[in-house]
Amino acid sequence: MSVERILDPRLRDRVVSAEQAAAFIQPGETVAMSGFTGSGYPKAVPLALAQRIEDVHAAGQPFQIKLMTGASTAPELDGALAKVDAIAMRMPFQTDPDARKRINEGKLDYIDIHLSHVAQHVWFGFYGDIDTAVIEVSAIREDGSLVPSTSVGNNKTWLDLAKKVIIEVNEWQPADIEGMHDIYYGTALPPHRKPIPLIHANDRIGQTTLNVDPDKIVAVVRTNGPDRNSPFKPIDEDSRQIAGYLIEFLKHEVAKGRLPANLLPLQSGVGNIPNAVLAGLAESGLRGLTSFTEVIQDGMLDLLKSGVLDYASCTGFALSPEANEEFKRNIKFYRERIIMRTQEISNHPELVRRLGCIGMNGMIEVDLYGNVNSTHVMGSRIMNGIGGSGDFTRNGFLSTFLSPSTAKGGSISAIVPMVSHVDHTEHDVSIIVTEQGLADLRGLPPRARARQVIDNCAHPDYRDQLNDYFDRACRDSYGKHTPHLLPEALSWHQRYIDTGTMKA
Amino acid sequence: MSVERILDPRLRDRVVSAEQAAAFIQPGETVAMSGFTGSGYPKAVPLALAQRIEDVHAAGQPFQIKLMTGASTAPELDGALAKVDAIAMRMPFQTDPDARKRINEGKLDYIDIHLSHVAQHVWFGFYGDIDTAVIEVSAIREDGSLVPSTSVGNNKTWLDLAKKVIIEVNEWQPADIEGMHDIYYGTALPPHRKPIPLIHANDRIGQTTLNVDPDKIVAVVRTNGPDRNSPFKPIDEDSRQIAGYLIEFLKHEVAKGRLPANLLPLQSGVGNIPNAVLAGLAESGLRGLTSFTEVIQDGMLDLLKSGVLDYASCTGFALSPEANEEFKRNIKFYRERIIMRTQEISNHPELVRRLGCIGMNGMIEVDLYGNVNSTHVMGSRIMNGIGGSGDFTRNGFLSTFLSPSTAKGGSISAIVPMVSHVDHTEHDVSIIVTEQGLADLRGLPPRARARQVIDNCAHPDYRDQLNDYFDRACRDSYGKHTPHLLPEALSWHQRYIDTGTMKA
After folding, report:
1. How does pLDDT run across B39-80, given as a tens digit for each residue?
2. Residue A3, burial from CB neighbour count under 10 angstroms (0-12, 13-18, 19+)
3. I want to staple B40 with a disulfide (CB 3.0 to 4.6 A). Which of A128, A251, A302, B150 is the partner?
């Protein structure tokens, strides 16, 4: 393997194997790694660390770390470390089945926070010191500055704060990604903060590389491995209908003069439904769209390629294998239209509010009054985490939540009397869309919201049950502002636990 | 009564009685009035309107309006109109007993939203047109510009958007209040928004008066009446202890280097406990404090007078009669140290995050995992509303919630297994303080938060009951990430409804 991606001679001397690099990490350390939704995470050191920890455990010794990242990673990182019980504490987001299992068994402590809060809370000292940073980059320049790879996440913060740094240089990443990033070094701690000078989603306000004190770099590891590259499912009928209702609504808002003809910068969560929305936008007749979001997935590349989307700002990618090939093949095209930022910028409340983003996120369930549960199955089991959905929901122009009206073959209703966990409050949620229709909750008092949600979004199989609850609540509730029957409010969830269905 | 406060000759000609002014308001109108926490609300027209509506109702005719303000007002506005069933919809905040009663009977629709969202959501068109604005000012200048009185709230937005405007000129307000206000006209709708150029809580970024198109002014009414001026209760032992724990914590954070020696700009909710905290700060030894808050109450004036607080930014006042006399007597002193802003600025997420405010707000209840209910008694009855607490909780440096550990003589625990309504999620709440102690939830996973809240904050009468629930939930919950027993999670609230106490 060539070392042409490592141009700083000081750092060429520190190239070691993944195993040698992993040996720098000690039990009990707080380790901060790169990675955001399966892009730009270290490919080799976490696997080597997992092997080392497994060996130590086999010898009867304890070895766990506290693990921070940008967001979710991949089986080679979260999965490998979770499987060997290497993680004592995980922050701020994950989607790994092995980690999830341990979290829900009470064996792995998980702290699920807004992605815009991560960097600042670590800077504030709320999470103690960072011992080691493990960061994937695409190259090291002559002066020791780092060319990021396919995610930025919290890498700037990890590199600034970590006592020692391990760099992975991944030659699988396209060399021409250089120049795509915009790393803003103008953040500070209060009382020294200044306005962030970003006015359009494609403004460049920073530099293309990450700074790091070379004296802190204890190891450089060369890798050549792909990002996670999960395929998306083909767009199903439910997703197509949800996308249709949402796009019809957005066009209606344009017609009413409440949105510009090219909308406002779009934020899109990751998954099959958001991907269907992006596909729907391609055929919508809308033009000149922009995006200020966390993650670019397949549909966003298509919109850029077809010219429907002018540009996009993000902090990471979630691409299928095919889309990844397309991205790498036409990197020079995409480099002109995509700007990658730190997640403190991509999700910053100041910027989301200024730009007036349109948030589009999935959900687990919503209740009659518009409270949304994004994180907990039946109130106690974590699914993934809140991620950046709260940053966009609270601060954007519009917050929309998209979900099929039922799950698990109809045994779970996504519309419930009371959500079993609240991630987005009634004060924050504007629009709910299911394959049944769209509920516009803007400017409505609680009982009028309930009518919208039941009539427009609930599955017919659950509509009578919801009406029955709501009617009796309106009659018998302690207060009639937000009517509830407390002994029944969470009974649908308990019924599912007990019987396998929410149906009465 | 002299007209020396009305210097624009065009508007002197429009001086009419309150009854004549109220006659401009038609049934079904959306009426936007001034007023924020009992300061700066119109004193005469709402009373005249209430009388007119009562007469119309007595004649068997319908007459209701939709009513928007800055925040809560006073008996002469919310109370008078609620009593005669004049309000069909109320937004965004109220604290009036007559309005509350009707809301909880299901007779008055109330929309309870973040105070930072109000102006922009009306600008976005989410609430339709504003027919009439009724705004109290302290004077009208020669050029027709308006000198605000003791609150600014949403007055700029109401004056800009209303089709017709009624001005009340209140000579009870000190003439020397002129110059205290800072009205920022730089806001815009996306995609035209720019950074707000405020870096310190005492920066001036606007003008001292409100603009209005004089052609829209249909009536000017002269008044001479006091703001609400509710007295505060003497500081009780619980409040003193809560204040003590919070201040001890803040000094600890200074000692640890996580806060500057003069802290960061303080936001303080309204009430007896926040007032006790302010009194505690006076004796804390801390100096050079600053405030970026919604409301200035008695304790804040004391801190300014004693020099502990350098300056304060607000959008309204909540003063006792004595404090109001002090304020009027020494208006020239306070005018140099207090800046009054529109509530879109006082509560703006961009600014709250940039300044790193320390939020201090009351609550109704908190649960084991740090979810806070600020609005609903037993899940369905509105108390007041979320007000600006969410703006500061989500975006500030620290969010603290303060409450006695019990209410109603011990029959209600403020620490419950699951809150009956969520206004501030587990992702947003940092610090809980009761007279029992302080729970620091920063950087903790859910079960560790539960231990902190039970051990440090719960009343001893409820601690065993909470431990029993938590222990069984940790054993039997469907998931162990956020353990809950759904059939019991809200049983404390139902027990209170059924038996008058949460005690088992």
Report:
1. 999 999 999 999 999 999 999 999 999 999 999 999 999 999
2. middle
3. B150
**Do B9-223 and B237-464 share a fold?**
yes
Residue in the structure block whose two tokens are 């609240």: A422
* pLDDT reported for residue B1: 44
Regarding beta strands A381-382 and A376-377, do their DSSP bridges make them parallel or antiparallel, or are they unpaired?
antiparallel
Q: How far is CA A429 from CA A263, A377, A484, in A?
A: 19, 20, 19
Extract the tokens encoding A101: 């299992």
User: Which residues make beta-bridge pairs with A39?
Assistant: A36
- Count how many Cα atoms sit within 13 Å of the Cα of residue A30 in the half-sphere of its side chain: 16
Give the tokens for residue B237: 């032992």
Judge: A200–B191 Cβ closer than 8 Å, yes or no: yes
Going by C-alpha positions, the residue among A349, A316, A288 that lies closest to residue A228 is A316
Question: Concatenated DSSP letters for B259-286?
Answer: S-TT-S-EEE-SSHHHHHHHHHHHTS--
B185 touching A (Cβ < 8 Å): no
How confident is residue B2, by pLDDT bands cut at 50, 70 and 90?
low
CA angle in degrees (0–180, nearest 5) for B79-A442-A290: 140
User: Residues 127 to 146 of A: which have CB under 8 A from any B CB?
Assistant: 127-128
Helix (H) or strand (E) run with residue A167 in it: strand A164-170
SS3 A474: helix
Two tokens, residue A45 = 């050191």
Please provide the distance, in angstroms rounded to a whole number, between the alpha carbons at the two ends of chain A.
Answer: 63
What CATH class is the domain B9-223?
A: alpha beta
CATH homologous superfamily of B237-464 equals: Glutaconate Coenzyme A-transferase (3.40.1080.10)
Do A18 and A47 contact (CB within 8 A), yes or no? yes
Q: What is the pLDDT of residues B322-367, one digit of tens each?
A: 999 999 999 999 999 999 999 999 999 999 999 999 999 999 999 9
Q: Point out the residue among A128, A425, A484 whose CB comes nearest to the CB of B379.
A: A484
The minimum CA-CA distance between B354 and chain A, rounded to whole Å, is 6
- B380 to A484: CB separation less than 8 angstroms, yes or no: yes
- A477 Cβ neighbours under 8 A, 6+ residues apart: A483, A484, A485, B380
Task: State the pLDDT confidence band at B232, using cuts at 50, 70 and 90.
Answer: confident
What does the pLDDT read at residue B3?
62
Reported residue count of chain A is 504
Residue B257, min C-alpha distance to chain A (Å): 9
Q: Which residues pair with B443 in a beta bridge?
A: none
Question: Is the CB of residue A294 less than 8 Å away from at least one CB of chain B?
Answer: no
With contact defined as beta carbons under 8 Å apart, do A37 and A96 qualify?
no
Section B117-142 average pLDDT: 98
- SS3 string, B31-43, reads EEECCECCECCCC
Question: In this structure, what token pair is assigned to residue A464?
Answer: 């009578």
Q: What are phi and psi of B344, to 5 degrees?
A: -70, -25
Q: What are the sequence ranges of the domains in chain A?
A: 9-223, 237-464
Beta strands in A44-84 (DSSP E): 65-68
Low-confidence ranges of chain A (pLDDT < 50): 1
